[in-house]
Amino acid sequence: xxxxxxxxxxxAAGQIGYSLVFRIASGELFGPDTKVVLSLLEIPQAxxxxxxxxxxxxxxxxxxxxxxxxxxxxxKGFDGVNWAILVGAKPRGPGMERNDLISxxxxxxxxxxxxxxxxxxxxxxxxxGNPCNTNALIAAKNAGDVPFNRFSAMTMLDENRARYQxxxxxxxxxxxxxxxxxxxxxxxxxxxxxxxxxIGGKKATDVISDHDWLKxxxxxxxxxxxxxxxxxxxxxxxxxAANAALDHVKNFHFPTPDGxxxxxxxxxxxxxxxxxxxxxxxxxxxxxxxxxxxxxxxxHNEFAKEKLAKTEAELKGEREIVKDLL
Length: 326
Ligand code: NAX
Prior knowledge:
Organism: Acanthopleuribacter pedis
Oligomer: single chain
Catalytic activity: (S)-malate + NAD(+) = oxaloacetate + NADH + H(+)
Helix content: 40-55%
Radius of gyration: 19 Å
Family: Belongs to the LDH/MDH superfamily. MDH type 2 family.
Largest sheet: 6 strands, parallel
Bound molecules: ligand NAX
Pfam families: Ldh_1_C (PF02866), Ldh_1_N (PF00056)
EC number: 1.1.1.37
Shape: globular
Distance between the termini: 34 Å
């Protein structure tokens, strides 16, 4: 196996990009023995900013950084990449509805899907730019013969947020909280599943006796955490989103420890009754051959089924808005 990994990052001059690139270049993501070539992509107006970013990266003198490429042309930027982290997207403007954002950002991902097909023969792509599930669906549907399951969307930030909330409520270290699945869309309809989560190896519902909190404030806090951060910081989550993108790539790149799983939005294969082909967040484990599987057999009570149905309906609605791009 080659010990050089080429990683493309779109929107690299943005705020998530600035938190992401140094950590990848430092060797934190793939380890000290793997060299990294960074392919940074931006819109033409932001290429100068990328040149400044490249100077800073070089000035870190990271032993693992084997090269930096800068492009505003996706086809060139995706040439030969192993991982594409698709962060670049337009933010929601004043008075803009979610549906407007879906229509505005969709075309970016048709172009990037096509460019991935032409440029990269062995690629995995994760979409961070919102609405990330639907953007990932658009990219995948435009990527020709790149297998559908090479595309995913990031719900790892939601999982990390949920793990922190459960740990804080139980008064334990966050490492004690495992197997918190985010089901569905990276949006306010997502379902952070505490029923199948564990705290210190026990069921979370046995450790946290306040089930009203679990069914109420816990879920809404996780669903609305992004908005709470914007309100407090005046800007959207950036370092935590970059951190989650690293976790996402690590989760797919390295074997999942026994008995554990992680959340990511991947193409549904019909598991848990979710319509096949929707880009839906599920519990995921990697397999020995480097591919992944959706963890089967988790129980859903009526409460959970209702939540799953709601987030699935939202994703179908988003897909309807972009149907001309698929
Ligand atoms: P910024 O506005 O700081 O950066 C976005 C960058 O993307 C800009 O520099 C812009 O020039 C670039 N860009 C736009 N179109 C592009 C294209 N076609 N090709 C290449 N670059 C392009 O936003 P930032 O805070 O970094 O957030 C980026 C995206 O992440 C947004 O869509 C945001 O909503 C989304 N998020 C997703 C999260 C998740 O958990 N999935 C959480 C954090 C974040 O909200």
